[in-house]
Amino acid sequence: MATAFEMWSNLGSVMAGLMFAWAMFKQYFPPQLSRHIEAYAHKAVGYVYPYIHIKFPEFDGERLKRCEAYAAIQNYLSANATARAKRLKAESVKDSQSLVLSMDENEEVVDEFEGVKLRWSSCLNVSQSSSFSLYNSSKEIRYHSLTFHRSHRDLITGSYIKHVLAKGKAVAADNRQRKLFTNNPSSDWHYYKATKWSHVTFKHPATFDTLAMELSKKGEIMNDLLKFKRGKQYYERIGKAWKRGYLLYGPPGTGKSTMIAAMANFLNYDVYDLELTTVKDNTELRKLLIETSEKAIIVIEDIDCSLDLTGQRKTKKQEKDDDEEKADPVKKMAKGGEERKESKVTLSGLLNFIDGLWSACGGERIIVFTTNFVEKLDPALIRRGRMDKHIEMSYCCFEAFKVLARNYLGVESHPLFPTVRRLLEETKMTPADVAENLMPKLDDENEDACLEGLIEALEKAKQDARNKSEEEKEKEKAAVAEAEATAATAMAEEEGKQTSSEGEQKTAGEDVLKK
Ligand SMILES: Nc1ncnc2c1ncn2[C@@H]1O[C@H](COP(=O)(O)OP(=O)(O)OP(=O)(O)O)[C@@H](O)[C@H]1O
Ligand SMILES: [Mg+2]
User: Fold this and answer.
1) Does residue 372 line the site of ligand 1, with CB under 6 A?
2) pLDDT value at position 335?
3) Is 386 found in the same domain as 371?
4) Is ligand 1 within 6 A of the CB of residue 207?
5) 355 part of a folded domain
């Protein structure tokens, strides 16, 4: 049997139908009259229809950003109301181990709070765009609608909505599966349902435990991250956007990417790997930024190679090459294989991305740049406030080696450790190379064999470095000798010229005297 609530809800639907009909016929009435009719109709509805509707749309701010309340309500409903819904949607979470059910579109459920009944509907409107387009340009507008009796207005708008949002956020935190995002080329953005970022589940095993670096430096970075994570109020108090920039620099194979994975696992944040070369211009960069979630690490790897962001002017030769390319398309094709789609993201666009007004939309974000050549970067890009913490990832030291030995061989100490220590102090080897040498190549290879292999590799690296430096010294010597020889020849020539001109002058003088 239909309850009073359902009866009133049905009446609500009838009224919605009448409103729709009115919207169609309204044009046939003079504007003055239609305004009067509308005002009286609203009053009359208010007397007979005692229910209030609140709409929670999926997007706010001109569709720029997904509304947090919408997401929280969706989570709340999937956890609390799905038992009563008849049509559900299933989504796998938590390493595909479990399913999360949520209400399907245009489905309704009744919820209860402190003895008060209320109704949630999940709605979808599809509107066709009037403009002609090659792509499917229909627009989907989703929203949740809450209906309740007006006598409970204070309870619902005061406590119930707060309760729903808090529960929804808690559910999201429980079900949260971290994601690794990458930006889609902007040419794909206008496809139906295309989003700016695509993602996979983030499953990198690196942690600060397995990261090889000096313990004091590691501890300092972990403390810095923790301070940031817990710093919401602090950032508010000092009037600074809740974000922090890290610059990781060092030679290839020293663990920069590994460090980012460790950071994400430590903080439980998503990772947005931003490929700058596919971003068309500064406006698109801003749009990408707005679509990143909170609790995220935004990464730009090898920033020095991404774009010409050094802020330096082009050399005369580069300018000449570019002009020639513009004039000669064949040359251009030969250089790029195909016509290059150049990104127009500029240094100032990137600076604003990191530290401009838009960077404060949404908090709790870490921005990480990695580079092999820190000296190539524009100082403005890496100044404190943009890149707050500069971390040098360097060659393997003994402490870092001990972490790798524990990870790869399961040993804390070994008689060969002192030899390794001495060799690591005498030569440079990246953690990636040390790790590779520590990895058993055969099933029966034990830790002794691995450590001996590493010592051999270190000895070889040391010898190679010595040979290289001797070669360089030889080259330097040869260059100095060559320079000296050239200078001596030039001097001799100069002297020769002087003597001959003196001789000529002398002969000329004698001739005059004879005469
Ligand atoms: N500090 C480290 N601790 C643990 N493992 C490391 C470390 N550095 C390098 N490795 C190992 O070496 C591999 C390469 O490291 P990674 O990709 O992090 O280097 P990178 O500094 O990002 O290099 P590139 O500059 O070429 O991008 C990793 O897969 C990891 O196993
Ligand atoms: Mg890397």
Assistant:
1) yes
2) 46
3) yes
4) no
5) yes
- Supply 120's token pair: 């949630």
> What ipTM is given for this predicted complex?
0.98
| Beta strands, E only, 204-344 | 243-249, 270-273, 296-300
252 Cα: distance to centroid of ligand 2 (angstroms): 7
Ligand 2 center from residue 301 Cα (angstroms): 7
- CA torsion, ordered 77, 80, 83, 84, to nearest 10 deg: -70
In a domain, 227, yes or no: yes
CA 222 – CA 217 distance, rounded (Å): 9
State whether the beta carbon of 431 lies less than 6 angstroms from ligand 1.
Answer: yes
Q: Please tell me the total count of domains within the chain.
A: 4
User: Which residues face 366 on adjacent strands?
Assistant: 244, 297
> How many CA atoms are closer than 13 Å to the CA of 234, on its beta-carbon side?
8
Regarding whether 406 and 272 lie in a shared domain, the answer is: no
The two three-digit tokens of residue 131, written as one number? 């403009």
Q: What is the pLDDT of residue 40?
A: 80
Distance 302 CA to ligand 1 centre (A): 14
pLDDT number for residue 213 = 93
The number of beta carbons lying within 10 Å of the beta carbon of residue 44 is 10
With a 6 A CB cut-off, is 386 part of the ligand 1 pocket?
no
Q: Supply the residue whose CA is at minimum distance from atom 14 of ligand 1.
A: 253
Give the ligand 1 atom nearest the CA of 212: 3
Q: Which residue has the tokens 């990261």?
A: 211
Residue 162: give the domain boundaries. 50-177
d(CA 35, CA 410): 81
Contact assessment for residue 248 and residue 369, using Cβ atoms and an 8 Å cutoff = yes
Decide which of 416, 447, 463 is a domain's last residue.
463
Could you give the C-alpha distances from 17 to 13, 24, 428, in angstroms and in order?
A: 6, 11, 77
Looking up tokens 């990408």 gives 288
Task: Name which residue sits closest to atom 27 of ligand 1, judged by CA.
Answer: 252
CA of 122 to the centre of ligand 1 (A): 47
Residue 20 has a pLDDT of 67
Domain-located, residue 31: no
| Residue of 254, 370, 372 to test ligand 1 pocket, by largest number of atoms within 8 Å of CB | 254
**Blockwise average pLDDT, block size 10, the chain, 515 residues:** 56 67 75 80 73 84 68 83 68 57 77 89 71 51 87 90 89 78 78 72 92 94 96 91 93 95 94 90 87 90 75 47 51 45 76 80 88 89 88 95 94 94 94 93 84 94 92 92 91 82 67 62
Nearest CA to ligand 1 atom 24: 252
Tens digits of per-residue pLDDT, 99-142?
666 677 778 888 889 999 888 988 887 765 544 444 444 567 78
